[in-house]
Amino acid sequence: MQTVVVKFGGPMLATTEKIVQVAKKVIKEQGRGINLVVVVSSMTPIRQNLRQFAAEITHEPSKRDMDALIATGAQLTSALLAIAIQEHGGKAVSLVGWQAGIQTNEKYGNARIDFVDNKRIEKHFELGEIVVVSGFQGITETDNISTLGKGGSETSAVALAVALNAERVDIYSSVEGIYTADPQRVESATKLSEISYDEMLEFSNLGTKILHPRAVELAKKYNMPIVVRSAKEDVEGTLIKGDVDMEKNLLVRGVAYESDIIRLTIGYDSYETASLAEVFSVLAENDINVDIIVQAVIDGIKPTISFTISKVEFAEALRVLESSKLSLGFSFADFEVGLAKVSIIGSAMASNPGVAARMFARLGREHIPVKMVSTSEIKVSVVVPQEDMVYAANALHEEFNIAMKEVPAS
Amino acid sequence: MQTVVVKFGGPMLATTEKIVQVAKKVIKEQGRGINLVVVVSSMTPIRQNLRQFAAEITHEPSKRDMDALIATGAQLTSALLAIAIQEHGGKAVSLVGWQAGIQTNEKYGNARIDFVDNKRIEKHFELGEIVVVSGFQGITETDNISTLGKGGSETSAVALAVALNAERVDIYSSVEGIYTADPQRVESATKLSEISYDEMLEFSNLGTKILHPRAVELAKKYNMPIVVRSAKEDVEGTLIKGDVDMEKNLLVRGVAYESDIIRLTIGYDSYETASLAEVFSVLAENDINVDIIVQAVIDGIKPTISFTISKVEFAEALRVLESSKLSLGFSFADFEVGLAKVSIIGSAMASNPGVAARMFARLGREHIPVKMVSTSEIKVSVVVPQEDMVYAANALHEEFNIAMKEVPAS
């Protein structure tokens, strides 16, 4: 019998009423004659309450005990969903992370999955039960409860699917799939029927919040298909898989953007005092995510380095740089706020060097200043003023004719 | 090093502010140079929320998944308390039931502890950590989460104390100890410095809510001393132990009462149709607790049986009896509401047959009608009209001169 792992996020489980809706949906899914694992996150209001409780006691809780605290969230949802499935005529069992065999390392708050022991879930399959698993959590070798950090629930789902040799992972979401651009802001955006892991990774990394890159990376590693689909509408979603042959001819697959970017620049008097690697080590140690990095030289001898961070991490980044100024040896630091990042993505780009040039030309014609540039094999990102972000996304979506190629006009 | 297990109930952990108070208290306790285990219940509002969630989905949740749900409550408290202890300078680790080695049978919702594996807690002691354990829960042989039912947190504490060969269990409570009678209603009530397990069992069974009889029974079995003490005031509590030699001369140790009692009577036409044992089997199967039972014969041939139940179980008891009327074969049933039970307790009573007579005589002089009587080796209970309950308790407290004997006038 085929196995499918499905995942529902916090907003889809925010109330008991919504949990009952999910219960009915998964009973119907299992009715198609499959083994079904349902991975759930914490109900959104519960997660907030748990963090609030801890914050009332301290701003630096121990990560180990914080994980024991946070893990109660998804345990609560999985128990409630199992109860709801039973109430509506299905057979179900709820399992917390350790019961589902999710073994992790000891990095509390951001643990990595080492392996999944599928024995217990297989037994519940034999009983015809829908197995509801608390996502985002596991157990360490020393029998401590761990949580998986950002993207943890989706990563749980992919890891379970791999261990159970599942057919695919269905990620139920508030949107109907992956779009060529944000349909809220780019009028001609269309839903993709398929997308490759690499392209999806770029979409995820570039601010599309639907699926965390960590889960996509794991799926890519084991070639596990993921479908992003709507929890509300019964329409086809977007299949994420290894190769997307049918659409290889499409140069640019989509446009992504991310707002509230800040550019930080730090400069050194000379190469002797510059320790560029150390800057990023210090930032990484303080969990500040740096995105685009550009290095330049002023006056032929004064090296500067610019990088982008998100607005929410700005204050912390400044604090870290200030307190490390002496050891890092830089002579000045400044910043620019009110920026955004716009990216074009497509795996065919690698073999087509003209894509970036065409992107810059179009932005030039639209009088949109490009502040920073970053490229990879399958994407080009530019940093532009925040107020130009949506306009730039629309222009690029049109420039590369994305919508037209994806869905023929009907 | 001596080991002490302490237990805090839900009302003492109802807010993060209260949790911080408990944290400071246990840090001080451990500072006396002991190994310390702290058993905690669910924060009172959380427990209510959890049950409410399930009730919104169904009125008959599966007990197994309900246990997974309810267990999150104490897990949350134990994690928060460990975090609070660390924040205030102590070393602590939180453990859920299975991590603390509490193995139970599979009777979900009302599981019994089979044994406690103390290995992990001993390891944390070696690290100098205060071990905060989620009470009320354990793990079954098949690795399912179970909860212990009524009195579960106190029972966890006693079981852990036995397994760790602890010096004693401290039950922190909203009261300062066990009183000769309810100090709110009996003016001359005084705190007992010591009380025997058997006497405490009677107090617990007779409506004193401080300590569940199940925990007392376990403590009695292993001769584990329990101290009931105030969470607020640093005053001596009441020590519950095997023998209370010093006060053996005291005939009656205390007066207890319980309000909102209902008497149910069912009658049969003849002995042939009567199946008295079956009545109580049916009630027990439906989890209805029957207290005092009195059997009588009317007209020489018609047997009747009267028993008391608490008001909250009245509707359910009627429903059960009604639906089993045919199979039970009784001819009529009636009931009397507005009753209360008043009891005198004392282990010296066994060797003094005049105590009950003196109790009835005094109640007679006070014109308090006695509706039912029940006696044991160490207590006599009478059922009286609810409105006479407090007056009867005061009269009996005076009659047996309890306050005078316990604490000499100073």
TrEMBL record, chains A, B:
Function: Catalyzes the phosphorylation of the beta-carboxyl group of aspartic acid with ATP to yield 4-phospho-L-aspartate, which is involved in the branched biosynthetic pathway leading to the biosynthesis of amino acids threonine, isoleucine and methionine.
Pfam families, A to Z: AA_kinase, ACT_9
Name of protein: Aspartokinase
GO molecular function, one term: aspartate kinase activity
Record's keyword terms, sorted: Amino-acid biosynthesis, ATP-binding, Diaminopimelate biosynthesis, Kinase, Nucleotide-binding, Transferase
Record-linked Gene3D superfamilies: Acetylglutamate kinase-like, VC0802-like
Species of the source: Solibacillus merdavium
NCBIfam families: asp_kinases, PRK06635.1-2, PRK06635.1-4
ATP-binding among keywords: yes
Catalytic activity: L-aspartate + ATP = 4-phospho-L-aspartate + ADP
Lineage, uppermost ranks: Bacteria, Bacillati, Bacillota, Bacilli, Bacillales
EC numbers, comma separated: 2.7.2.4
Domain Aspartate/glutamate/uridylate kinase stretches: 3-230
